[in-house]
Design brief:
CATH topology of the largest domain: Rossmann fold
Shape: globular
Distance between the termini: 39 Å
Order of helices and strands: EEHEHHEHHEHEHEHEHHHH
Largest sheet: 6 strands, parallel
Number of strands: 8
Strand order of the largest sheet: 4-3-8-7-5-6
Radius of gyration: 18 Å
Number of helices: 12
Number of domains: 2
CATH class of the largest domain: Alpha Beta
Length: 263
């Protein structure tokens, strides 16, 4: 299993990369130019992914095998600052996708979009094709909201490989999207796979993102919760407090250990 080599901060066992949007997109470009088998893959998540990984060692092994773990949220950033080992800032999945499309528009890179609904993908493809005509949409597929048969799954992978995209963007939601990719990493012939959760809805314009002032203040979760309370209530009202308790406890232990070693 590949272990990330770039600088990182470990939070509850997950190695969160010390990166920003520009560095993330630059890394994707470099990996496109120098592909390998299996391809590279990127995780973009905030507290939710770290919490799932904390509770599930198998999932933690997946995210820690990623080539880049982008902190999509302010919680990891704040915790890193409390530890005296600050991350540069949050690196949201929609920002990675948007920035890549801007670069790809001038350099002719191609993308395949896998996940979300047919309506969302249709809106995304229309938006991208009009706003970024120099970028090539290699394909898009919305899998059914059920388990695929082995034949259907092979067909989906074959379609992606036949389209030969530079980047495969997966929007199945965490942890499904990471598990989906990792189980097929040897079958997919794609230089880079980026797991971006709900980014398709934001970039397509079907769901309005929180203003940057709200996001940078760490309140994007509240904005999203107000928009989709039935979907997010458990994550934000049950799992978030649990995460904060354990993460702050770990942070306190790190600070206390550091202070003791300096005496």
């Amino acid at each position: 299993m590949v272990v990330m080599s770039q600088p990182h901060v470990t939070i509850l066992g997950s190695r969160v990369s010390r990166t920003d949007v520009q560095h993330a997109v630059g890394s994707i470009e470099e990996w496109i130019r120098h592909p390998r088998v299996p391809g590279r893959f990127v995780v973009a998540t905030g507290f939710h992914g770290i919490w799932v990984a904390h509770r599930d060692p198998a999932f933690r092994a997946i995210v820690n095998a990623s080539d880049l773990f982008c902190p999509d949220g302010m919680a990891p950033v704040w915790l890193s600052r409390l530890r005296g080992d600050p991350l540069p800032g949050r690196v949201p999945g929609p920002d990675i996708l948007q920035s890549f499309l801007e670069v790809a528009n001038g350099r002719g890179y191609s993308s395949y979009f896998y996940g979300d609904t047919e309506d969302t993908l249709s809106a995304l493809v229309d938006h991208v094709s009009v706003k970024y005509p120099g970028h090539r949409v290699a394909g898009a597929f919305s899998p059914p909201f059920r388990g695929l048969s082995p034949e259907e799954d092979r067909e989906a992978v074959d379609r992606i490989n036949a389209a030969r995209p530079d980047v495969l963007w997966v929007g199945l939601g965490l942890p499904k999207q990471e598990r989906w990719y990792f189980a097929r990493r040897e079958q997919l012939n794609v230089p880079v796979v980026v797991n971006v959760g709900a980014a398709f809805r934001f970039v397509s314009g079907r769901v309005r993102r929180a203003p940057s002032l709200i996001g940078n203040a760490g309140l994007e979760w509240a904005w999203r919760f107000a928009c989709e309370p039935r979907k997010l209530w458990r994550r934000d009202l049950v799992e978030a407090p649990q995460f904060l308790y354990h993460a702050l406890k770990e942070t306190w232990e790190i600070r206390r250990g550091r202070a003791a070693s300096q005496r």
